[in-house]
Amino acid sequence: MPMPTNTLTGSVPLKLAKKITENVNELWESGEFLELVTPTTKDLLTFWFCEPHTTNREINFHRGQKQAILNTIYLHEILKVETVLDIYQKVDKMLLNEINIELLAKEKYQFAKYAIKMATGTGKTWVMNAFLIWQYLNAINNNENKRYSKNFLFIAPGLIVYERLLDSYLGKENEEKFREFETSDIYKNQELFLPERYREVVFAFLQNSVVKKDEIGKKVTGDGMIAIANWHLFMLDETEDENPFENPSIIIEELLPARPGKSAGNSLDALDNRYFRGSEIEYLASLNNLIIMNDEAHHIHENKSAGEVKEVEWQKSLNYISKNKKFFSQIDFSATPYDVTGSGQKRTKHYFPHIVVDFDLHSAIRDGLVKMITIDKRKEIASLPLDFKAIRDEKNNKPIALSDGQKIMIQAGIKKLEILEKDFSKLATPKYPKMLIMCEDTEVVSLVEDFLLEIGINADDFVSIHSNKKGEVKKEEWESIKQRLFNVDKYDKPKIIISVLMLKEGFDVNNVCVIVPLRSTASSILLEQTIGRGLRLMFRGKEFEDIKRENRIRVLVEKKSPNSYLDVLSIIEHPSFMEFYDRELASDEYGIDKNIPKEGQSIGDIVKVELKENYKKYDMYFIEIEQDEEKTLELPQIDINKLEGFQYFSLEKLKSFILKGETFYSEELTVKTTFGDYQVNADLFKANSYNEYLQKLINIILNSKQSIKRGRKKEFPILQVFKDEIIRWIDIYIRTKLFGEPFNPFEDENYRILLHRNNFVTEHIIKVFSKVINDIHMNLKINSAVIKKKYFSEISSFNARSTYLLDLQKTIYEKTPYPSNKGIFEKNFLEFLDRDSKVNKFIKIMEYKHDFATIIYFRTDGLMSHYYPDFLVETDKNIFIIETKASKDLKNPNVIQKQKAAIDYVKRINNISPELRDNKTWEYLIVGEKQFYNLEKSGADIEDIANNCRLNELAVRDTLF
């Protein structure tokens, strides 16, 4: 973004940020970056920014967020900067010649301090989340490294941002005012933020360590703390020349007045609050280490008047908190990290000297991350010499009426809003555009309300945010305002939001499409903050990407009026401020819109496509296989008495073979001479010994690969189930059936019969129960496959560009889309299907809508991913899953992986009962572009296409080799 030339520090901090970015990108591209950081940081960066993780999930950090994270980690971990001056010295010393070095000697720059300059609406909160995770995990995994902390302080500029931070880390409030952690940013987006092995510990930290502003120093947390407060907590009463933290008498005087009294403002509640306000700062100052993340950090700028520079009061608190710590760092986030002095030609921007990344509004608009800005210059406005300020009473300067210029601006905004409302309501998922009126002061708000009622706007169509000069609202009003204000995207009313300072930051809704700034001064910070309220994207679906990209080219490059108003922010501006826009924004960051759009124009060629009246005739389904058809072993009922007993010898005869006690003998070690047999009487057979015998017996039986059936040996798989039941059967068999009479292995050393060295008894038991195992294998139960049929008609409508729609007969929708970019092959294939008499019906699978029509496959790197085929086509005998590919893509390794998964998928479908698949055989076809055109030219039909393009396991194997 081109910056003004009349600055004290010029664009030096932005030059610094550019140099840091160049160094970082060079290291990153070479692969060296990951080798210079801690193992924990390497894990995180690999997961956040490297393949295959980035392509294996639907959400990722955009390039601005990535740059902010990498630049900060580069300075902190690789360069190990200690102060802001250190950043300049280690990155580019020459820049120190262009700034006042005395500035960097101030107390507030004597620690690791980084400013993140990112345009409003580009996701600063996600970067804050990443920094918290990076610092916390390094703190617990690198105990010896003192550059990390488990203590965090998030500072918000006001109630709106404060509530947003609580939502981010604790989760949103439900109807019972209970915060649901599952709705918090990091938990909800865990696939982006956290490798799986770190999730449990980070979730536990978040759930147990968040401290609200009134709990700081009071709430006990575990190992670490996430304190969230707004900057008002750190405001102190001004003293002439003394620092209240260094003068105990001032603290005593502040906290201990002579006596309580409501009339003096010294009620017990007030005294309590004043005491704890000091204790909160003292508590934060007492911590050994702390990371401060300062949201909307332009509030920390210095006051400059009459050539005197004064620190804002709450910065003094931060300076005090930072003292005497083993580690302290501050990360400031702002779209406008500068202060402004002077006016007109003497107007000067003073950028924060510690800016380490600059992702400006120009970059955000070009990347399509925020709405495109157009300034509405109406002929009727430009032709009239109207005033843009409210009419004021000459005596007290209070506003008494809106000027004609303000009224026309409001009416122009309402006209634009009405057209957007009508058009956006025609979409498959209706959207509710909103208009924001920014008033010059609180007293003008009521004048705007009166004017809206006067021109016929209903009272429930607008909502007003009354705030004091600090942009604060009374506590009792906040809850009702919050519920109505922060849900405006979901409902058609209110349509218009009127505010002064309250909504200049943190009002993060998506549907503000029209802004009417009724200003009285030309403030560059207020300009960017006002624009920021409408920058967040309203249309995020893939179906809108092409038309929005074309629109950006038309407005920003070709300098023409937009063809559509999807994610276009219209600012109804007075002509007196056009020079202001030219000065503050680069000329290619906004467009000029001189025409009120006609109804239907605001959504361009986007139309809503619905089901045909006779869609059931052409409806199709995709099969989700929840469980394949399987055969399971059933445990049969066994009658022990029918099993064959041991018949070679009686039990008495067997006992006569066995000697009592244990016999030992001595053996000479060298020539092995034996001598002196002797016996030792054994104790009774122990239960654990018998159990060990049974365990060995069952292992022999179950792990044998053979069983006996009808006198012949037959192979069967090793049995892995019913082990406990079979042991129980063997034990009962031994005790009751084996010898034809009761047998107790624990009496009179009977166990010796089972362990005789000839093993004839044990062999008999194995033989008997091998037959039992074989019977189990024959006792199969067949479980039918469990499937779910997902009908495509469940998606009853979608948005598409009318320019890229076909009117086809054999499909469920009124129109069928094809890709706007290089989609001629698909277009021709669709028309071929529609005219082929052998095709009964077909569907074009839209990934962004038919998300159920997916096949899981494993990429070449081993990670799981989703594959969405192009078409599903039905004939009398078959259902074809068809992928159309340009010839050059057919050898791509991941395309082959998709093919293997699709072949396995149709094989599984064809294994289920025919009636579950309507007696159709499923097949998978890969249709190459050249192959299709050659076949079509020769008069081929879908069956000919199938014969030539059918893919099976053998074909894929041949492709791999």
From TrEMBL:
One term of GO molecular function: DNA binding
Entry GO terms, CC: cytosol
Domain Helicase C-terminal: 419-572
Pfam families, per database record: ResIII (PF04851), Tn7_TnsA-like_N (PF08722)
Protein name per Swiss-Prot or TrEMBL: Type III restriction enzyme
Source organism of the structure: Marinitoga hydrogenitolerans (strain DSM 16785 / JCM 12826 / AT1271)
